[in-house]
Amino acid sequence: MAYINLLPWRDAARKERQKQYLTILTATAVLSFLLVFLVNMVYSARVEGQLQRNNFLQNEIKILDQRIAEIRTLNDTKKSLQQRMALISQLQGSRNLGTQIMDEIASAVPAGVYLTQLEKKGTSLLLIGKSESNNRLSNMLREAEESELLSEPYLEFIEAGKDSVSLLSNFKMHLTVKGYEAVQGADTPAKPANGGAK
Fold first, then answer.
1. Are 130 and 114 in contact (CB under 8 A)?
2. What does each C-alpha distance from 146 to 10, 29, 126, 196 come to in angstroms?
3. Which of 53, 57, 60, 161 could form an S-S bond across to 166 if both were Cys, CB 3.0 to 4.6 Å?
4. In the CATH scheme, what is the homologous superfamily, with its name and number, of domain 97-185?
5. Membrane-spanning residues where (predicted)?
6. pLDDT by residue for the chain (198 residues), tens digit each?
7. Are 125 and 101 in contact (CB under 8 A)?
């Protein structure tokens, strides 16, 4: 007689498949959780690192802003000092300007030319005087043109003396004093006068 297995093998097989399915499902869930956790950890670490870098950069930017403000303050102080130095240099250069002008005029006025009045307004000079001849005034104009301190000589007029006995002509001349650069460069002594009464 043949042996017949009457046990519910189908139920046992179904239960075994269910166990395998639950095992696979549980393993998949655990692996998914671990994967999500690891990805979250990696991105959290990156975000944290980026935040730290941002904080570092912000602190460095604040330090640089403070240094820039200090540099601007130093630049303002430097400009102020440069302006003061330029003013002091101009004052130093023009300190002896009056003496230099008189010395230069004395060397430019030839013999036979006599000054009766000298006026200075800003950089302009007005010379009024008498001359024995027009040639002497021409020499004076040439001397003024060659001067290191004087420039733009302009003879406004020459007229004969009102007295018939007088041999002197009256004249009026304008001159310009060059800038302070020329004054500072004119440290060399002036040329001696060409003689004669001034």
1. yes
2. 132, 105, 18, 20
3. 161
4. General secretion pathway protein M, EpsM (3.30.1360.100)
5. 21-43
6. 566 655 677 777 888 889 999 999 999 999 999 999 999 999 999 999 999 999 999 999 999 999 999 999 999 999 999 999 988 887 776 677 777 888 888 888 888 888 888 888 878 888 888 888 888 888 888 888 888 788 888 888 888 766 655 678 888 888 888 764 444 444 443 343 333 343
7. yes
pTM more than 0.70: no
Which residues, 6 or more positions from 26, have their beta carbon under 8 angstroms from its beta carbon? none
How far is it, in rounded angstroms, from Cα 146 to Cα 50?
75
Tokens of 136: 């002497």
Buried b (16+ CB within 10 A) or exposed e, 183-193: beebeeebeeb
Could you tell me the residue ranges of all domains in the chain? 10-95, 97-185
What is the C-alpha to C-alpha distance for residues 68 and 81, in angstroms, rounded to an integer?
Answer: 20
Question: Is the separation of the CB atoms in 118 and 198 below 8 Å?
Answer: no
Rounded to whole angstroms, how far apart are CA atoms 125 and 153?
Answer: 9
- Do residues 153 and 145 touch, judged by C-beta distance below 8 A? yes
